[in-house]
């Protein structure tokens, strides 16, 4: 029988995790001591040199989906796991993966110009000359197309930019747009352009965002030189990620596939990414109004919006082939509860050599897995099964993880305790997002990892950064000092946790270090070992820190007698989201009414330079009051249920099958937050608390059903979603209440 | 006997000036009707074509201090006034006015480069080729110097930039600094550089601020092309303006002059303004840390701070001659109270052709004066004397106005009712700053001037702009709708009101239109008639609007039976300044303590990329609580006195000598706000409520004695200044209380 330190210590963890004596949520005193000793041994096995070597070898050749390099990397990982004694297999899916057959971008007026569409090799970058093996610069899942039209500059190409264009009297219908990278996931730009009638889309990297404005350019410094291009997917992942032809099911060899024309996530217009070297002549040639100040970048030109005499011709054709993606799945069976899985993953495919993205994370994960294997050799086994996953096909659209999750969905919903993700990693501060019932737990993990640069805990460093950032922004307040824990970020999308969390409701984390590793190499040929060694994490100590962080997370959850879920933290977080929504609605109501008054009074006309011919913004209907009481009552119920559960668990001494059934109930709880029909117009996304934004892409929307309906001013739908979420949260509260009945 | 509409209507004016029936503060019903009819006739005389013609003729040649063009312009103005029947004279002073003898700027390492220091003639700009008559590009009152040193980029060169440099571990001692124009008056940059030990200072115009980033460049558009240079004075005017050799006294022919080395307002280091064409090679050559994000401009480079291998050689020599400044003073005697003067002024000297600055304002003032003369021809005379002043030597340091004010100080303090200033003018919105006892009055003036573009009153347009600007910045609140008057801006410096207001306490206004006339021509050869006609006010309708606004202001104050001062508005404004100061001190106390905690905890080190070697900011002593009660009690007394005065005046029917003595007491009241010893370390500035900032130059500091002491963390001085200001305000309150005894 174990004596457990649970609710009491959880409460302390909520208020001052890092200043407390080292308690471990879910562990009794003796167990905790053993666990801390285990982790100390684990740390002892981790070697930065191994991370370096993993990274160097795996990034030595381009390794995108379907390439020989991709297969070689998967086999490298497979062999490593095998050699360390894991039960390992490569699970292969067959996914749509278009690659370029033809790429042409030229300006035909007022002057002629043909875009180079090429990233040159650099003598300072050893792998940059592997031209034959490299994917050319392109946006994966662009449509085929051959279009010619006037060019319009649309800033970042997000919906509010089109509102501004409308005020300027500019339509993109029948035109080709050029948008800057940034401020949204890239796939949003062509999608919104297409919605507005554009026939083609160019996306370029402005030097303001990751080029010379930010710092010296590669190879002198880390930032994007004039030829660097960001490749990347433009699949409409906010509808569903994964293989576009097999939504909701695994893309096995024999899976029933959609016809390509019926795949909802495929664009209808061609889209191409270019460098600022290629963009400058196009932008310089534009006339029409001067772009609004916040639209302008760092090119030495006056940014105009167009349209006018500037005509461009964009011609793109692709090979629309099915390609294999090779997921490497390695298991270390649990000694006590083998059917409870702690899943830890990082993708292995890159757009080119992919040193930073994803191999920095992958290399650290491999070292973590090796150290876990070393622990196992000493006689220790995890209580729960640990599953390491090296995903393929993340870059084109979370293909490898999504297909695996869809294939194994029922088993995962039974067995998966948690999914712990990482991706690219570098020097700096801990970034941690995830399921908020595990927020106190993660504070304990971060308390116990020491930052390699400052030798304080990564939690303390994270807090210091929050304080200094507030001080620098003149937002420093006493309560920020008093706050002694950090909040987990809410997860949107952009890496492989998405299918676990948002499709299946499996509690998830996304972990990584960064903030002192900026640069412009992302998805270019310059994301190389040479670049990484100079600018990202030269000593690989942050690779070690990631292995320590994700490793501790994995080990503690695998070994905890009682799983460290604290639903009070989740309840509190949802309370905050709901309060924020209500405030937002009130603000929207007030500003809509006030703006309407301005519009009616003609003030926009009076306050605008008549030479600019700027139209007032459109008037909107009054924003109604919505009935939030069902949600408020549900949250009240949840608060009570979560507190009652925590209090009860603190009093109980669980053993045997009761312990197992409580644990199972705890880790499956978040699945109760899935809605049966998913989000409006995108049923694949079923989590009612977290989703990637329909118009932000990676950026998270919390309570997404309600929030996006309000943002879209669809108040009838917002009311429905309030009721739906209230029902889901009530069910969740009742579920929690039933756990210790 | 006149029936006066005063306090009652003043109160209404305070709350909703433009929505009321047309009452005129200080006028009885019949008088008001007559006055409005007079103003309507006045409007009828104003002709845009005359403003155009004045501007064209006066800007046809360069007309800086001491030039033939300057004399010609003064004579043009003199002859105009003479022809209209004014009693006119040219009053000449003799002032120090250095002009360049030698200018050299070169980079001697790591590469060689010699700055062109020249603005080329353009075929699109007819006067730009008058090279022989143009002053070369320079900063007036730079020291002579021949210096060579490493270059350091100091952003805008204001004190907080040096705090940042210190955190970067960079000293400018013995080095030459390069600063961007903007964010402070230019004279602050070399002054602060000199205080930090720099041996030379270069100021350049970054294209981010008024070049291609902002819009198309001249001659295609209005913004600064790569060769445009902003000339301008670097006299240390925050100590005293006017001739550096005759502080406090008129620079008449025989005045006792300081030795040049003893003039406190003269710099000790050489300083030179350059174009971005000349700046780019220097900035591109810099190494050292990358400049902080907010320091970077729009040149296509990575901005580095230096120092390093970049060495520059700056050699400047000047002719240190005395030059005449010719003030044109024209009077129209008052029929009733000839010894009460309503003074209206605008300068006439320019740096080169000076079409926008100052001739757009000067031309409108001339047209205003002509229309006043036309009224006079019909038999009307002002009750008070109107004095039109066309100042010379404003550009080098308010020389013409300051010397005139210093020469006639005692007479002015007896006779001057108000000083109404204007300067450059263009298309857009009314800008109005001034003495707050006249705020309700100015709201009435703006109520009665119709905007030429939108055909609503300029007051309404100003309000619409305030609303839309708040809406665009998401700051729109209901109370802004309800606010139906505008506030006068507080006056700092930068034009000729400064000696009137801040040295003598004469109630002042500064009026002008702008906001739809941006560009980069300021103080360059491109501030020409051609530029003005295309980009500033093509139809000269805003010249007419200025004449209507300043003309109404002049006429109403000249004719008002009771002068329209409402000291309740002033009291309310000072209350706000004091409240703001107290909040600022509290904020400073809190942030100082919190930052101190961060510094002591080492958080700056933890939250900063160790590769940047950024030091924490310096710790400061705790910020004490100050005793504001003397000021609060004084303000309380002032509130009561102002209200009592207004109530009493509303009940009284004044006539004859009592009327005259009350009026005199009213217009001399603001002089009671002067302190006998002036501000600390700059006794010339005696106004306790308004002053230009010691470290901002033009930017105003309200309650400057207290505010600057707090900003400089000199809390003992702040406490002294609180007591001093409290005594002054008490005296002022008692003075007001005595007016109607």
CATH superfamily of the largest domain in chain A: Zn peptidases
Query: Which runs of chain A of at least 5 residues are low in confidence (pLDDT < 50)?
Result: 1-18
Assembly context of the chains: homodimer
Shape of chain A: globular
**How many separate structural domains of chain A?**
3
Give me the Rg of chain A, rounded: 26 Å
Count all strands of chain A and give the number: 18
The computed structural class of chain A is: alpha/beta
Would you tell me the overall average pLDDT of chain A? 95
Q: Quick one: which chains have the greatest interface?
A: A-B, 54 and 54 residues
Q: Report the CATH architecture of the largest domain in chain A.
A: 3-Layer(aba) Sandwich
Task: List the total number of helices of chain A.
Answer: 24
Strand order of the largest sheet of chain A: 1-11-13-12-14-16-15
CATH class of the largest domain in chain A: Alpha Beta
Residues in β-strands, percent of chain A: 15-25%
Main beta sheet strand tally, sense and closure of chain A:
7 strands, mixed
CATH fold assignment of the largest domain in chain A: Aminopeptidase
Task: Name the helicity range of chain A.
Answer: 40-55%
State the end-to-end distance of chain A.
21 Å
């Amino acid at each position: 029988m174990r004596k457990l330190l649970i609710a009491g210590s959880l409460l302390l963890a909520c208020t001052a995790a890092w200043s407390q004596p080292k308690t471990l949520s879910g562990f009794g005193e003796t167990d905790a001591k053993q666990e801390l000793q285990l982790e100390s041994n684990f740390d002892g096995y981790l070697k930065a040199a191994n991370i370096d070597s993993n990274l160097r070898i795996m990034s030595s050749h381009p390794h995108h989906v379907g390439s020989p390099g991709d297969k070689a990397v998967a086999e490298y990982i497979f062999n490593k796991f095998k050699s360390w004694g894991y039960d390992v297999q490569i699970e292969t899916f067959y996914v749509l993966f278009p690659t370029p057959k033809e790429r042409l971008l030229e300006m035909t007026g007022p002057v002629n110009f043909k875009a180079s569409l090429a990233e040159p090799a650099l003598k300072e970058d050893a792998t940059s000359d592997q031209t034959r093996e490299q994917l050319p610069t392109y946006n994966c899942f662009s449509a085929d197309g051959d279009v010619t039209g006037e060019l319009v500059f649309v800033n970042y190409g997000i919906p509010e930019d089109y509102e501004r264009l409308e005020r300027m009297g500019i339509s993109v219908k029948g035109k080709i747009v050029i948008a800057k990278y940034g401020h949204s996931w890239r796939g949003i730009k062509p999608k919104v352009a297409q919605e507005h009638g554009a026939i083609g889309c160019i996306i370029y990297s402005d030097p303001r965002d990751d080029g010379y404005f930010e710092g010296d350019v590669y190879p002198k410094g880390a930032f994007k030189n004039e030829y660097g291009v960001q490749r990347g997917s433009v699949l409409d992942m906010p509808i569903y990620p994964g293989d576009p032809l097999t939504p909701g099911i695994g893309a096995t060899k024999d899976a029933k596939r959609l016809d390509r024309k019926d795949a909802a996530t495929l664009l209808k217009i061609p889209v191409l990414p270019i460098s600022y070297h290629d963009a400058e002549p196009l932008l310089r040639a534009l006339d029409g109004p001067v772009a609004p100040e916040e639209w302008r970048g760092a090119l030495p030109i006056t940014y105009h919006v167009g349209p006018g005499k500037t005509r461009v011709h964009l011609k793109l054709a692709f090979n629309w082939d099915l390609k294999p993606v090779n997921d490497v799945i390695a298991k270390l069976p649990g000694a006590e509860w083998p059917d409870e899985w702690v899943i830890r993953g990082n993708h292995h495919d890159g757009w080119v050599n992919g040193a930073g993205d994803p191999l920095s994370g992958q290399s650290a994960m491999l070292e973590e897995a090796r150290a876990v294997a070393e622990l196992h050799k000493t006689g220790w086994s995890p209580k729960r099964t640990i599953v390491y996953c090296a995903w393929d096909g993340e870059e084109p659209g979370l293909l490898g993880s999504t297909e695996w999750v869809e294939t194994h969905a029922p088993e995962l919903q039974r067995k998966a305790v948690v999914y712990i993700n990482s991706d690219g990693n570098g020097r700096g501060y801990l970034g941690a997002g995830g399921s908020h019932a595990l927020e106190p737990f993660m504070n304990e993990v971060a308390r116990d990892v020491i930052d390699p640069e400052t030798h304080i805990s990564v939690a303390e460093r994270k807090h210091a950064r929050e304080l200094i950032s507030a001080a620098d922004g003149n937002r420093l307040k006493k309560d920020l000092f008093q706050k002694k824990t950090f909040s987990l970020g809410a997860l949107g999308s952009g890496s492989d946790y998405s299918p676990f969390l948002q499709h299946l409701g499996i509690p998830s984390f996304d972990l990584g270090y960064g903030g002192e590793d900026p640069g412009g190499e992302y998805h270019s040929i310059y994301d190389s070992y040479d670049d990484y060694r100079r600018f990202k994490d030269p000593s690989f100590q942050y690779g070690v820190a990631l292995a320590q962080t994700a490793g501790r997370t994995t080990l503690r959850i695998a070994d905890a007698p009682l799983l460290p879920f604290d639903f009070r933290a989740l309840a509190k977080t949802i309370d905050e989201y709901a309060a924020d929504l209500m405030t937002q609605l009130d603000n929207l109501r007030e500003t809509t009414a006030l703006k309407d008054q301005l519009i009616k009074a003609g003030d926009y006309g009076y306050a605008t330079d008549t030479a600019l011919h700027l139209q007032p913004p459109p008037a909107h209907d009054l924003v109604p009051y919505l009935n939030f009481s069902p949600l408020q009552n549900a949250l009240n119920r949840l608060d009570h249920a979560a507190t009652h559960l925590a209090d009860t668990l603190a009093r109980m001494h669980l053993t045997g099958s009761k312990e197992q059934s409580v644990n199972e109930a705890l880790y499956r709880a978040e699945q109760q937050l899935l809605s049966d029909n998913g989000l409006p117009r995108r049923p694949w996304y079923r989590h009612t608390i977290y989703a990637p934004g329909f118009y932000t892409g990676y950026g998270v929307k919390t309570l997404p059903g309600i929030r996006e309906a309000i943002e879209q001013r669809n108040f009838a739908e917002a009311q429905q979603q309030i009721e739906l979420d209230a029902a889901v949260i009530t069910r969740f509260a009742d579920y929690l209440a039933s756990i210790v009945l």
